[in-house]
Structures are given as structure tokens and as C-alpha cells.
Amino acid sequence: MKPALGICCFVLVLIVPLVSFADATVTSTSVEQTGVELTVYNNDLGLVKETRTVELPGGGGELKFMDVAAHIMPVTVHVKSINQPGGFTVLEQNYEYDLMNQQKLLDKYVGKKLKIVDWNKYQDRKEVVEAVLLSNNQGQVYGIGDEIYLGHPGIKVLPKLPEDLIAKPTLTWLYENGSKEPHQLEVSYLTGKINWRADYVVVLNKDDTEADISGWVTLDNKSGGTYRNARLKLVAGDVHRIVEERVPLAMAPRRKDLVAPAEPQFREQAFFEYHIYDLQRKTTVKDNQTKQVSLLEANKVKVTKELLVYGIRSYFTSQFQEKSPKQPVNVYVKFKNSKENSLGMPLPAGIMRLYKQDADGSGQFIGEDKVDHTPKDEEVKLKIGEAFDVVAERVQTDFKRLTRAMYETEWEVTVRNHKDQPVSVGLVEPLFGNWEVISKSHPYTKVDAHTIRFDVTVPKDGQAKVTYRVRVGI
Question: Which of 7, 117, 172, 429 has its CA 20 to 30 A from that of 99?
Fold first, then answer.
């Protein structure tokens, strides 16, 4: 009898803690929040940090931490007690994401009784039928009396909610509590489906020499969580992540005479190899919401417009026999991101949309381009489109293959200007290997080891013709 008594005592020792855990269940919701901080990265990732005041009974128990983001990454959760760090210990963590919906509720009631309430329009009265749900696979099958019904009209009424279904994503912890005071629990985790980008509005002046630039932060939250009165931080940079086995908003230009530069809402600072933009006020970011916050305002930024024609390397080792020798004249706008140029703040990656007033004073969209993260004192170069009234034409006037690895070609590039003022056009020629310009009609600039550039001024309603001969060795 003694060994059997010992086994019974051992079993009781195991059972008692489990019973205490099950009986001491506490639920915490966002109502108990005392602070929220949201850091959003520009690669579909967010870091949520929230603080709640939670009162827990002594000993062990279960804490249901509700109102977390639906796209939470459970393995990234970290929880600690700020005021009693030694009095709160997490023994086990579970993430409950089997959320309640009609399909899952009926799945839980397969083989069980429920009620079906229907309105009999002929007798103008409500009818209640008791049924057994036999199947919920691609439609319901009911057993009513001695008959089988393939579907049934009416509202299905369940006697109670299944215990293993929840209405909201929930973190569940088995804990040990050694404190008699309420805990200030700080919980942090990463979540997906939240992103931000920068959108810029650039309004050119009449002469294309200056621009007013407005920067906006566009925050897109589909994480399944709402962050009320949150301290918002944005991280710009390429944060490396392990991958295991995302219609920009259009914004109308604003007249510069009606808009004064506003105080910046974000405080920018360097952080590791990235940059943080800290919103200097609290804001609420709702689930399934796109929010825009002003990032910067800069007036009279000096800009330069460029017209460029690009060649291709293969031109110089093959016979150029294009059916249409015309080439696009690309339009670029560039400026320096410097303090002397009314800027100087690191610019997050985003889309810059350019506008300009027409003859009637109405702002018109003229093009857009994507910019990468741009540090201060670096140049921003935007491709806006292709010129309408400036045309380039390329003709190969001679081609010789001197050896198996050496070619000699002669070119004639004609630029015609149909505007009522002269324009400057750059001809960019990408050479390679051992190259040598044998003859030329205009001086050129050596951009790098394998690129030369001719800059020519084309008179109004006139043309300019550049000819040169080059030898290229592969």
C-alpha cells in the first residue's frame, strides 16, 4: 500500500499547479494601456511597444493579453514588468489566432444540436426547428427528425460559444507572480502588414530654375491592430531580414504664395546605419487606414533641367541600321540636397511628383520619378519624361572592322530644336574597352573611364550636328 500511496501523492503534486493555473485567468485589453510606441520600417514591418497596468493574483495563473496586431510575429514577443521586474515570470506563451467566424463556429458544432429560426411568411409567424448539424463541408447538412436536409433556410442559433474560439488575436501567458502590486507590463513585438513611404510634391517655377518641395509621409496600416495616441517613429534604411520558405496617393500642387514653410513635425536623427524620423506629437493609427503626415517644406530650391540623349555600347561594334534613326531626348531635373539649397535633411526613399503652372496659372502634372534614400549634400536626379519639341537623330556614316577585336565607326548626331528659345543638349556615349576618339566636330568631356559627353547649344528653330569618329578595341 505504501508505494501506491506515494504514487497518488506524486500525481496530486502534478495536478494541483495545473488547477491553480486554470482557475487564475486574467484578461487584459487595450483599455488598460498607459502608453504605445510604434516604429515603422519601410519594408512592411513594424515594432509595437505598449505598456499596460495589469493586476494579477499571487502565485501562478494565465494572462490573456488581447488587442494585439493580427499579423503579429509571435517569436518576437518580449514582455517584462517595469515596476516589479523580479516579480513576474512567463513560463509559457501561446498565440491564439483561431479567430471566430461563421464557418469555424459551425465546424465546432458538427454532430451537435442547434436551433434554426425561420419566418413563415404565409402564416406570418416565427418557426423554430431543432436540428443536428451533420456536416459543414461545402454547405450544411442537417438531421431533423428522421430526415436529412441538404441546407435549410433561416438563422442558425447556437446554445453557446465554443471555448477554443476567440474574437480577437490574443497572446496567452502562463505566469508566476510574486508581487502584490499591479504590474506595469511592457510588451513589444514585430508585426507585418504595416509600411510607410515618402511622397514628394515638387512645383517648378516658370523658368525651371527653382522649385518648392513638400514632403509627406504616407503610412499604410493593414497589420490588424489600432494604435491610439501612439508615439510614432519611422526608420529609413535597408534593414536586412531573413526570408523564410506591396496606387500611390496623388496630391495636388499648392501655390507657393499661399503656403508658408511649416515647422517640421518630424525630428530626424542618425541611428546605427539608418535614420529615424520621430513625430513630435502623438497620433492614432487605425487598422486599414492610410495616414499622411507632413515631413518637410522647402521653398526656392535651386534646380537644373537637363536634356540628354544616350547612346548604347553595341552601337560601336556593329552596323547601325535602324529603320528609324530618331532617338528620345530625355528630360531630367536635378538639385542638391544641401542646407545652402533650402534642404539638407536626409530624404527617405519615395516618389517625387513634379508640377508646373500653365499659362492660365493652373498647376499641371509633368512627371514623376522614384528616389532612393538620399543623404544630405548629395544630388537628386529625376527623369521627368521625353522632350516633345527637341528631336535627335543618329546616323552611322562609316563602319570598319579592323581586326577580330577592333572596330572603327563614324557618327553623325543631329539635334533639332523647334522651340522659340535655344536649348542645351547633352549627348552621352558609353564606350568600352580600349577606345580612342580619332576626330570630332565638338569638344567632349570624359565623364568616366568609358563614357564621353558632348554638350551642344541648339538655336531656336534650328539644329546642331555633332560628328565624331571613334576606335574601340574589345
Answer: 117
